[in-house]
Design goal:
The complex is a heterodimer. By secondary structure, chain A is mainly β. In chain A, about 0% of the residues lie in helices and about 55% in strands. Chain A is globular. In chain B, a hairpin with a 3-residue loop joins β5 and β6. The chains are: A mainly beta, B mainly beta. Chains A and B meet through β4, β5 and β10 of A and β5, β9 and β10 of B.
């Protein structure tokens, strides 16, 4: 299975601190994506990084990808209470949404 | 608002009931998906409908029956469900060739089977 596995499963930090979540996967990929989910809601796409990219930024988000280690990290800088949510990595072996495989997620809590 | 609308938001049904979940997307996409999200498990792809392919996860029981009458609407028909089918059911859409790999999700239907 190419399923992504997030680490840690749960993370609690103080508002203003940086949050780092990691994702490992097993097979070669076309791209890796990060999604966010508020409790009981749908997932929202955050950022996509392709296999030939090493780092990508979007606002307070920074994603890195190390294909040799089959791992990715999502960094959220200067966290806010509104960042409290579950974060999922998803790997796509081919350039097709039907081939996207999700991990189990990291539950992030931001303490005020 | 993601442009993908799911109804109902919550559903409680008995094991002998028949119900349907509805999904509508207003994004002009031509691929739609059903996902199942159970507690502490990864999202499970159930069905895909697109111009290019129809994909069914062979592990999905026949008590779940999808219907896609057009590119904007997707249904999931439910009958004789089991308590373990209780989960959040998510609909998503994408536009192959444009937002190819990115999924747009609805808010989900929280299903409880008694």
């Amino acid at each position: 299975s190419q399923q992504g596995e997030e680490d840690p499963q749960a993370l609690s930090i103080q508002e203003g601190e940086n949050a780092t979540m990691n994702c490992s996967y097993k097979t070669s990929i076309n791209n890796l994506q990060w999604y966010r989910q508020n409790s009981g809601r749908g997932l929202v796409h955050l950022i996509l990084i392709r296999s030939n990219e090493r780092e990508k930024h979007s606002g307070r988000l920074r994603v890195t990808l190390d294909t040799s280690k089959k791992s990715s990290s999502l960094l959220i800088t200067a966290s806010r209470a509104a960042d409290t949510a579950s974060y999922f990595c998803a790997t796509a072996r081919y350039s097709s949404a039907s081939k996207i495989i999700f991990g189990s997620g990291t539950r992030l809590s931001i303490r005020p | 608002e993601t442009g993908v609308t799911q109804t109902p938001r919550h559903l409680v049904m008995g094991m002998t009931n028949k119900k349907s979940l509805k999904c509508e997307q207003h994004l002009g996409h031509n691929a739609m998906y059903w996902y199942k999200q159970s507690a502490k498990k990864p999202l499970e792809l159930m069905f895909v409908y697109s111009l290019e392919e129809r994909v069914e996860n062979n592990s999905v029981p026949s008590r779940f029956s999808p219907e896609c009458p057009n590119s904007s609407h997707l249904f999931l028909h439910l009958h004789t469900l089991q308590p373990e089918d209780s989960a959040l059911y998510l609909c998503a859409s994408s536009q192959p060739g444009v937002t190819n790999e990115k999924l747009f999700f609805g808010s989900g239907t929280q299903l409880s089977v008694l």
